[in-house]
């Protein structure tokens, strides 16, 4: 049985480990080195803090038989610059990294930053369940538009999003990689 709940600060390490499954290359670009443990620490610091794009405030935890099976982090695309500012400040302070990432989202959509499923729970349809949850809670109930990026090198993810009703609305660069920008709306 799946249980969806709001994340808590205490979940930060587990969330960071799952997020690394979804965004390790981007985190390594952010921190300037391929260091898994440092990537986890970077994400953990941000997840524990309020008011940034990776904050526990923007994350839902998915439990399967009382074990952490997955997470999703999402936020108002119109607040990207405000939510990204603490991320860029941490990179500058702790990693001496000054980066200027492209806007991965835009006003008018709730941006799904990450969906991550634990390797122990893959193949059980949890990623699909997370998408269904977001569609029901944000689109069907609140009449909001969902947006996400899908990497051109991940056609199976794109097929899943298309099956769920997402459509390609354009392309966006993120950390020097081109992605398709997809949206789901009523």
UniProtKB/TrEMBL annotation:
InterPro entries given in the database record: Acyl_CoA_acyltransferase, GNAT_dom, YpeA/RimI_acetyltransf
Record key words, sorted: Acyltransferase, Transferase
Keyword presence, tRNA-binding: no
Superkingdom field: Bacteria
Pfam families for this protein: Acetyltransf_1
One GO MF term: acyltransferase activity, transferring groups other than amino-acyl groups
Family annotation (Gene3D superfamilies): 3.40.630.30
Record keyword Ion transport present: no
N-acetyltransferase domain boundaries: 2-186
Entry-linked PANTHER family: ACETYLTRANSFERASE
Protein name: GNAT family N-acetyltransferase
């Amino acid at each position: 049985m799946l249980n969806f709940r709001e994340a808590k600060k205490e979940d930060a390490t587990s969330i960071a480990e799952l997020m690394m499954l979804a965004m390790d290359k981007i985190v390594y670009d952010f921190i300037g080195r391929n260091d898994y443990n440092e990537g986890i620490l970077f994400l953990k610091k941000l997840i524990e803090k309020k008011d940034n794009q990776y904050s526990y405030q923007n994350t839902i935890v998915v439990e399967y038989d009382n074990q952490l099976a997955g997470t999703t982090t999402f936020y108002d695309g119109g607040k990207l610059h405000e939510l990204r500012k603490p991320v860029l400040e941490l990179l500058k302070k702790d990693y001496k990294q000054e980066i200027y990432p492209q806007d991965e989202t835009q006003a008018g959509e709730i941006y799904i930053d990450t969906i991550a499923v634990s390797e122990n729970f893959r193949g059980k349809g949890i990623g699909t369940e997370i998408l269904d949850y977001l569609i029901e809670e944000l689109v069907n109930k609140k009449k909001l538009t969902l947006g996400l990026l899908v990497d051109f090198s991940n056609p199976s993810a794109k097929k899943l999003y298309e099956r769920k009703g997402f459509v390609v609305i354009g392309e966006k660069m993120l950390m020097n990689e081109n992605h398709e920008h997809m949206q789901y709306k009523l």
